[in-house]
Amino acid sequence: MAELENEAAVGDAIRKLKAEAILTYKTDGMDDEDVGWVSPQQLRDAATQLREAVQAGSPETRIILEVYERNANRIDPLAEEFVRDLNDIIAMTNWAEEEGATRMMLEVNW
Predict the structure, then answer these.
(1) Contact, 5 vs 74, CB < 8 A?
(2) What residues contact residue 83 under an 8 Å CB cut-off, 6+ apart?
(3) Could you report the per-residue pLDDT of 58-108, keeping only the tens digit for each?
(4) Which tens digit of pLDDT belongs to each residue from 18-45?
(5) Which of 52, 71, 62 is nearest to 2 (CA)?
(6) By the 8 A CB rule, do 51 and 83 touch?
């Protein structure tokens, strides 16, 4: 997903699935007030929406999975690995909410 900026079709597919809260972008050098923060619930809903779309075999997920595959582990089935990552995002949002966070964003590091 970190390669989204080079693939407009991925962003379009995510927006079509109403999961835009999961979209990432680089924030280096930005002030906090300029960052597109979302609530933990919004991020959880987006991850859940994507997970359900992948599990249902929604056609919009094809391009998302194609781009995701570029950095996949190539051990597990692609959709299974992606769903596991979405479940990790859901777990992070639950933790953030338990810690009292009212806003967050998805940051990808590797």
Answers:
(1) no
(2) 51, 54, 55
(3) 999 999 999 889 888 889 999 999 999 999 999 999 999 999 999 887 766
(4) 998 888 665 667 777 777 788 999 999 9
(5) 71
(6) yes
Query: Exposure pattern of 27-66 as b/e (b: 16+ CB <10 Å)?
Result: eeeeeeeeeeebbbebbbbbbbbbbebbeeebebbebbbe
Which pTM was predicted? 0.84
What's the CA angle centered on 44, arms 60 and 4, to 5 degrees?
A: 45
| Domains in the chain: boundaries | 4-98
